[in-house]
Amino acid sequence: MRAALFVIAFAFLFTAACGGDGSQVGGASYKIATASARSDLMNLASADGILQGQINGDGTACFWLGTSSGGQALSWPYGYSARGNPLAVYDDTGNRVAAVGQRVTLTGGLMSDNVHSITGCSGFTEFFGVGQFDSAT
Fold first, then answer.
1. Distance, CA of 97 to chain centre
2. How would you classify the pairing of strands 126-136 and 72-75?
3. CB neighbours of 57 closer than 8 A, spacing ≥ 6?
């Protein structure tokens, strides 16, 4: 009995020590639209709104601002990713930056008119290239 309690206590302490602040917990991973390479170049337009998102059956996810029929699909900086439960965006170091439903402020710009689709986001006509994530509340 004493050995079993020791094992349970050790498992609990190990899990707590390795868990960090919880910002990296998140469920399944999904491929999202991102820049193809790191770059210091960035448009300086600002976008603000409630982050919307959906998981697709093909292992991708889409994030956007506005309504799904009239919003701007988001393409994130190189190295960003998504995980579910709740669906959230993670930066290139694995830290969660925003979850669906949060108000976000982003810096970047509209992508050129010759961009007609991005990974995971079908049905959109406007695409915002996120150069920098500013805040989420």
1. 7
2. parallel
3. none
Domain membership flag for residue 2: no
SS3 70: coil
Range of the domain at 31: 26-136
Main-chain dihedrals φ then ψ at residue 115, nearest 5 degrees: -90, 120
Q: For the stretch 47-80, what's the b/e string if a residue is b when 16 or more beta carbons lie within 10 angstroms of its beta carbon?
A: beeebbbebeeeebbbbbbbeeeebbbbbbbeeb
Instruction: Establish if 21 belongs to a structural domain.
Output: no
Number of structural domains the chain divides into: 1
Within a domain: 34: yes
Using pLDDT thresholds of 50, 70 and 90, give the confidence band for residue 41: low
- Measured distance CA(47)–CA(86) in Å, rounded: 22
Tell me the C-alpha distance between 25 and 21, whole Å. 9
Q: Establish if 7 belongs to a structural domain.
A: no
Q: Give 18-35 pLDDT, tens digit per residue.
A: 333 334 445 799 999 999
* pLDDT tens-digit series, residues 108-134: 999 998 999 999 999 999 999 999 898
